[in-house]
Design goal:
The complex is a heterodimer of chains A (117) and B (113). By secondary structure, chain A is mainly β. Chain A has no helices and 11 strands. Chain A is globular and about 45 Å long. The termini of chain A are far apart. Chain B is 0% helix and 53% strand. Chain B contains no helices and 11 strands. Chain B is globular. The chains are: A mainly beta (117), B mainly beta (113).
Chain lengths: 117, 113
């Protein structure tokens, strides 16, 4: 299957600081990457859709100024949580979309556990 | 309002038997469905998918069935193995998978020895 990496896997930061999470597709080029968030014992919720070279599309209720997304190349997207607060503590997962013959399948990274103190 | 529903939070199946995980959706515009397997603190692993133009897709021990009129899909795992124990998420998408996924809440599958 396709390989997607995420870095860091775990980060602890102080309230008010910014944290950057990287998502890379290692063995394919992904024109579209997605960012999800998972709360404890909850499903994954789509935060934003990131297309290479253009602005990200955010889902309703997601603050674009707080969750900055940059998709600089076909293999790299970054999510920066700015001025982090304890309520931003969560499990953030990215996915990269791989185009097949008729459909696109999303392959997920291993996730990043963020804890804001 | 949940557009993708997995009504069984957990399912226990004996090793070697068939595991059947169910998923219902409400939005008839979904045209691509996927199943993912997930362990705690890890990203989901893609298992199998199906397009809305098909009613069945098979890959090894995994088969996904789609009933469009009932807006229902199911994942069959046969035979079930201990390593199949995990949380299984059903996901749906528009545009052949080009859009973000809408996930169900997951079903925790437990394979009993």
């Amino acid at each position: 299957g396709a390989v997607v990496s995420q870095h860091p896997s775990r980060v602890i930061c102080k309230s008010g600081t910014s944290v950057k999470i990287e998502c890379r597709s290692l063995d394919f080029q992904a024109t579209t990457m997605f960012w999800y968030r998972q709360f404890p014992k909850k499903s994954l919720m789509l935060m934003a859709t990131s297309n290479e070279g253009s602005k990200a599309t955010y889902e309703q209720g997601v603050e674009k100024d707080k969750f900055l997304i940059n998709h600089a190349s076909l293999t790299l997207s970054t999510l920066t949580v700015t001025s982090a607060h304890p309520e931003d503590s969560s499990f953030y997962i990215c996915s990269a979309s791989r185009r097949g013959a008729h459909q696109e399948t999303q392959y997920f990274g291993p996730g990043t556990r963020l804890l804001v103190l | 309002d949940q557009q993708v529903k997995q009504n069984s939070p957990s399912l226990s199946v004996q090793e070697g038997r068939i595991s059947i995980l169910n998923c219902d959706y409400t939005n008839s515009m979904f045209d691509y469905f996927l199943w993912y397997k997930k362990y705690p603190a890890e990203g989901p692993t893609f298992l199998i998918s199906i397009s809305s133009i098909k009613d069945k897709n098979e890959d090894g021990r995994f088969t996904v069935f789609l009933n469009k009129s009932a807006k229902h899909l199911s994942l069959h795992i046969v035979p079930s193995q201990p390593g199949d124990s995990a949380v299984y998420f059903c996901a749906a998408s528009f545009g052949g998978g080009a859009d973000g996924l809408t996930f169900g809440k997951g079903t925790h599958l437990i394979i009993q020895p």
